Amino acid sequence: MKNDLILCLARGASRDQTIDQTIDQITEPPGDSVREQIQQYQHLGYCVVPGLIPAELITAARQRLDEIIDTRPAWSPGRFQDLDPARCPGDAPIAGGIQRPSLEEDVFSSVAQHTNLAQAMAALLDGAAELFTDQLGVKYGWNETEQGGRSYFHQDSWYWKIAPELGCNCWIPLHEVGVDAIALAVMPGSQQGWQLTTHESYFDDPAMGRLTDGTFTPFQRHRIPDTLVDCSQEHLIDMLPGDGLFFSNYTWHRSEPNRTGQTKAFYAIAWQRSAG
């Protein structure tokens, strides 16, 4: 089923092409479930591809991330978004996010630029596509705050300002995720009309920021005000390691807190339509 869907996406499920035309391009009939997946992305702003990335690549990326958490490599300090050290256990800096790991090591670029991912992105963006940015996120089991590592509903284009037809995101868990276990929830159809909703700024608890010469500088993140959100309409998505959740830059989404007592992580990868 996963391979059929990737094949379907890779063969041109463009916004101007009907579902029936796309299905007809596939050598073997994919069945109604693939048809529904494609319709879901076009109309609801997201779709899920189970087993998008091979298990051995996900295992390698997860193991390497564990090593980085334990012993930070000599990468540029700007790669790391650290949690407030005054709120963390131990003396070493603790990263909540790691920016552009694919530029540092092949173990990450093999995921961020995997053929399955590249083909799906090119189809969803209706043309040649390229990696825009990537980020590892870590939600620690020791974080017992009310926020618990969660993010709130937001649109990624509020940060990146990419035109709606030019960008697509893929969220890949490195561990099994679900309720109270860092899963993403999306607001179906929130991308329709391609409008950016006004966001408000806030600090995480504990805050994320930059450590420079021992000084921590927190930064604010952005979210859609609660008064505009009807959580009864959200779709929360249980996923296994290596599954891929594709959504547009304008799709409202949030993450669950981590109440498992175990550290969990994800790989967020954004692609964009190529310029030429």
Question: What does the model show?
Answer:
This protein has 7 helices and 14 strands. With 276 residues, the chain is an alpha+beta fold. The protein has 2 domains: 43 residues, no CATH class; 229 residues, Jelly Rolls (Sandwich). The strands form 3 sheets. Strands 1-12-5-14-4-3-2-8-9 form a 9-stranded antiparallel beta sheet. The protein has a 3-stranded antiparallel beta sheet with strand order 11-6-13, with no helix packed on it. Strands 7-10 form a two-stranded antiparallel sheet. About 9% of the residues have low confidence.
Highlighted features:
Jelly Rolls, 7 helices, 2 domains, 276 residues
What's this model, at a glance?
The chain is of the alpha+beta class.
In CATH terms, the superfamily of the largest domain is q2cbj1_9rhob like domain
> How much of the sequence is in beta strands?
25-35%
Number of helices: 7
| CATH-scheme architecture of the largest domain | Sandwich
Query: Mind summarizing the main beta sheet?
Result: 9 strands, antiparallel
SSE layout and pairing:
Blueprint: H1 2-10, H2 19-24, H3 32-44, E1 46-49, H4 55-70, E2 80-83, E3 95-99, H5 106-112, H6 115-124, E4 129-139, H7 157-160, E5 167-173, E6 184-186, E7 200-202, E8 208-212, E9 215-218, E10 221-223, E11 235-236, E12 244-248, E13 253-255, E14 264-273
Helix pairs in contact: 1-6, 4-5
